[in-house]
Write a structure and sequence with these properties.
Number of strands: 8
CATH superfamily: ph1033 like domains
Radius of gyration: 15 Å
Distance between the termini: 33 Å
Strand content: 25-35%
Shape: globular
Order of helices and strands: EHEHEEEEEHEH
Largest sheet: 8 strands, mixed
Number of domains: 1
Structural class: alpha+beta
Length: about 150
Amino acid sequence: MAYWIVVGSPENYEIARGRGFDMFGFKSTRRRESAEMRPGDRLVFYLTGVMKFGGIAEVTSTVYEDHAPVFKSEKKPGEDYPFRVRTKPVRLLERDQWLDVKAYAPQLEMTRARGEHWRLAFQGNLHKISDADYALIGADVEAAAKVRAKGA
C-alpha cells in the first residue's frame, strides 16, 4: 500500500465529494505517478489556497485515461485531468473540520527539512508520502471526524 498527497483546489475536492468520491483525476503531467497507484492506496487531499487537509479516499482501480470534463484548473482553463483512478471515501471532513497544514509542517517528513519554505513540498499535483506522514495525518483526520460525530 502506498500513500499519496493530492494537491488540488477546494472546488475539485467538492466536485469529487458531490460524485460520492467515485473517482479522482490527475493532471496530464502526472501520468508516471498516477500509473504507480494500486487498489488499496490512500489519497490525502491537500487543498490549495486554504492550505488544509480535507480528507482521505482509497484507490479502488488502476489508472485509466478519460478526457470527459469533470475537474477544473484555476491556472489552465480546459485542462481535463485525464489520468484517473476509481476511489471510495475513507474519511471526508466538512469544511469547518479541515486540518490546518501549517500545524503539520514541522512534523511531516515531506515538509520538515524545508523549514519556513514548507509550502514548496506541495508544488505539483501528486506526491507519494511516507507511512509515518500518513499515520500522523490519518489519525488526525479520524479524530476530527469523531469530534463531529460526538457533537451531532
